[in-house]
Amino acid sequence: MTSPLQTVDEHAVAHARAEFLSEASVATTAVRDQILTSWRRSQLAELSVDRVDVRYAGDPDLGTPLMQCASPALQQLSSQLAASPVSIVLTDAAGTVVSRTSSDRGLLRKLDEIRLAPGFTYAEDEVGTNGIGTALVLGHPLYVLGSEHYSEGLNDLACFGAPIVHPLTEEPVGLLDLTCRNVHSDRWLPALVAQTARSISQELLTASCERELALLAHYQVACRSTNPPVLAVSTDVTMINGTARLSLTPSDHEAIVALVGDRLRSGRARSATVALSGGTPAHVSITPVKDKRDQVGGYILVVHINPPTVVRRSEPHVPSTPLPGVVGSSPVWRNRVAEALSAFGSDGGLLLTGEHGIGKTHLAKALHRRLAPGRFSTLLDMRDPATVLPSHLGEPSDDGLEPSTLILAHLDEVPWNRRREVSRWLDGVRAERGLVRVAATCSSAQLPEDMSHHFGAEVRLPVLRERVSDIEELAVHLTERIPAARRLRCADETLRILARGRWPGNVAELRDCLRRAALSCDGEVIRPEHLPSQYRKVGRRLLSPLESLERDAIIDALEANDGDKVHAAAALGMSRSTIYRRIQRYGIDLF
């Protein structure tokens, strides 16, 4: 539900912001609870308050279903706002700008200055409180006015963001944002952005129905013409035939779908080899399925299971013993670790890619400990402009030991003014491969060509939502390593709640959640009530997607209204009796 634009006392908010930054507290009601909570998250992430630090994530993909479905609504919105000093911004689910339009040249110059432009990311955990990233964190429309922004560089702007939710999955697939100068903010903008976001969601539903019908037709043909296991997958649906149900485990399904996604994202050939449960190899053929709009809406996967004796020596095998400190037993994770181990041992240079917080640098360190435990390793943070690029990389190994290791963290975030210098330096590193092994990490979709050609192998690590079966094991491991005067552990119910979480911040977010829970825990057992409130929304039973959405909305409304059920019901458009019944049904006991 969209909240109407409320009058904000800019002077009072600016004063409160200054007070918060100096004392980490606010003694005024001038700041909305959602904004204050976001400030605290931004401060916890140690984000800059003086400047807008925006990361370039790569050229946006304009051929996605989101862009295709949003185009008509964006064109209509552009016509409506043609005479207004307002910009229209579309982002993906991570807050990376996909498109931006405005008829106001002065505003566009301002947006260029702060890099609110295609390819740049405005996630809250990177930029701080803003109408894009914070709305995505909250999962509902939000406006951020003037000094409510965490970064001073955004304080003269007003941002109105509304997540675009896919009607079938009920997951955000993007966000629509209207940004203008704060002096030009108007009370009709929140309703306009929310209404347009809903119309895009409806268009996604229509397109999804067309895609699913096409996928179903191809799936039926594949099942009639072949005996092997067949899977049909899209962003919304997974179908498996009887052979797949009998011969493949749920872990096999997870490994196949994740590996296929990796091959398609990297543009590699539409076939893949995957190790199933027990190490049995299988060849997967991948056929894209297009809808009436000529858009790929899903894939037909035919799995040919080979006898174990045909496994070639050149193919990566799951290591018999885990890497030190690397946790996870899901097939998709073990396969990627095996690929990384094989590639790192070949001295060709290894590039580990994937989202922030999945453990790329941690894995690189573990690879060094496994392959070269007696040698020296160097870790360089390539984001830092002050990072010194060593000219002396290694020594010849006369004692038969492995080469030393150089780990380049965040290689995709090298400052623009150092790109050429780093590329030349990598040429020198490449020339000394016999003296040093190189592993680099990259969170962007693609590393620039002038750097990527230095690496002989690339391994994309799966996000936590692709290895759900590992969450409980990870939680146990991370809890055991929390510095504390006592040995901590998680209660079984706590582990079940964590396993049902979404974890957009991946392992790093899970670690932060457990550390915060440990601060609230007086004993040795972390129970559900010790978890931060946003992680207790899972409830007492496994809810349907629609129930989960309603439950989260109720909790957010209660938090925004200091636990007042009457005001929360009014904000949600519910009657008082309805919200009381929902609170009891979902086991909401935060207030």
UniProtKB/TrEMBL annotation:
This is Putative transcriptional regulator. It holds the Pfam family AAA_lid_14. SUPFAM superfamilies: Homeodomain-like, P-loop containing nucleoside triphosphate hydrolases. It comes from Pseudonocardia sp. TY-7. Keywords: ATP-binding, DNA-binding, Nucleotide-binding, Transcription, Transcription regulation. GO terms for molecular function: ATP binding; sequence-specific DNA binding. One of its GO terms (biological process) is regulation of DNA-templated transcription. Residues 326-519 form the Sigma-54 factor interaction domain. It comes from the Bacteria. The keyword Chloroplast does not apply.
